[in-house]
Amino acid sequence: MTFISGIKLQNIVLMALLLLSSCQEKSSLALLTTEPITEVTGSSALSGGNISSDGGSDISERGVCWATHTGPTINDKKTTDGSGKGSFTSTLSDLQPATPYYVRAYATNSTGTAYGNELTFVTDTENPNSGPQIIADHTVVDKYDDIPEYYINEVKKMWLSVPGESHATAYIFGLELL
């Protein structure tokens, strides 16, 4: 009879442990959204995220990840913008001009990494030839196309032609010839 009651006692203890362990709240992935993309240039942009729930476990890392393909992850390019719940702002840098990018906010807790909604944008076009052009020699011209061919390679005196109309006088300092 002692043996039977020992088995019963063991079953009761196991059942109690099972019930107690199932009452503990398990953590889950964080809940977050990706903030709209703003201040887009040819090489950078701003975004961020808002973490509304940490999933029952502290957020150890948060930021934004981006790529030129859909579904960017933290294995692609990313920012690291602190820890914890709430809103944060991220600067995406080293972007290529006139390129489509996909962006998601991310948050990492002890359960894993969660991602916000995916947004997409295209960086601005940065044309290095769209700025002022150096034109040459003693001939005064209205536009670069009017410079005679033989002057272009024989430049001795230079001035700057800035496209557009203006009724103002401007001075340019620190001009560097490349």
Short structural summary:
By secondary structure, the protein is an alpha+beta fold. 15% of the residues lie in helices and 30% in strands.
Write up this protein.
With 178 residues, the chain is an alpha+beta fold. It has 2 domains: 31-122, Immunoglobulin-like; 127-178, no CATH class. Helices cover 15% and strands 30% of the residues. It is built from 2 helices and 10 strands. Strands 3, 4, 6, 7 and 8 form a 5-stranded antiparallel sheet that branches. A hairpin with a 4-residue loop joins strand 6 and strand 7 (113-115). Mean pLDDT is 78; it is low at 134-139.
The SSE string, one letter per element, is: HEEEEEEEEEHE
Look at the structure and give the mean pLDDT.
78
Instruction: Extract low-pLDDT stretches.
Output: 134-139
Percent of residues in beta strands:
25-35%
CATH topology of the largest domain: Immunoglobulin-like
Count the E strands. 10
Can you tell me the CATH class of the largest domain?
Mainly Beta
Tell me the domain tally. Answer: 2
Layout of strands and helices, then pairs:
Elements: H1 2-23, E1 31-34, E2 45-53, E3 61-67, E4 77-78, E5 86-92, E6 100-108, E7 113-115, E8 119-122, E9 133-136, H2 149-152, E10 158-161
Characteristics of this structure?
178 residues, alpha+beta, Immunoglobulin-like
